[in-house]
Amino acid sequence: MIGNLRSVVLDCRYPAELARFYRELIGGTIEDTDETWVVLTEPQGRRLAFQLAPEHEPPQFPDPRGSQQFHLDIEVGDIEPAQRHVLGLGATRVTDAVDEDRFRVFRDPAGHPFCLVWGIAAADT
Prior knowledge:
The protein is α/β, with parallel strands linked by helices and about 120 residues long. The protein is built from two helices and eight strands; from the N terminus they run βαββββαβββ. The chain has two domains: about 1-55, 2,3-Dihydroxybiphenyl 1,2-Dioxygenase, domain 1, CATH 3.10.180.10; about 60-125, 2,3-Dihydroxybiphenyl 1,2-Dioxygenase, domain 1. The chain has helices at about 15-25, 80-90, and strands spanning about 10, 30-35, 35-40, 45-50, 70-75, 90-95, 105, 115. The strands form two sheets. The chain has a four-stranded mixed sheet, covered by helices on one side. The two termini are about 20 Å apart.
């Protein structure tokens, strides 16, 4: 092993706003370092960081020319109330993505894709 994963970092135009979105989604505490870097530490101690990228362009997904490159899977107990909640927070549903019976695809307010997943046993991950 070379090292330990410290943070997952998302580029965006508004780091503090995106950190608040994810805090509502997964819980945790926010540390505002400055206007260019904000860290959310979720209850299990994992870190999501949000970095200012003034020219950030959301990924296109689905995109026949390529993949979404990276996304987060957020496990939920009951998909319907979870979906209503994320939509209320400003997420949008990716209606042209192929949903399975155990996940749905969304974009966060900055356009990064993420999935709500449910009913998945540990052996399926």
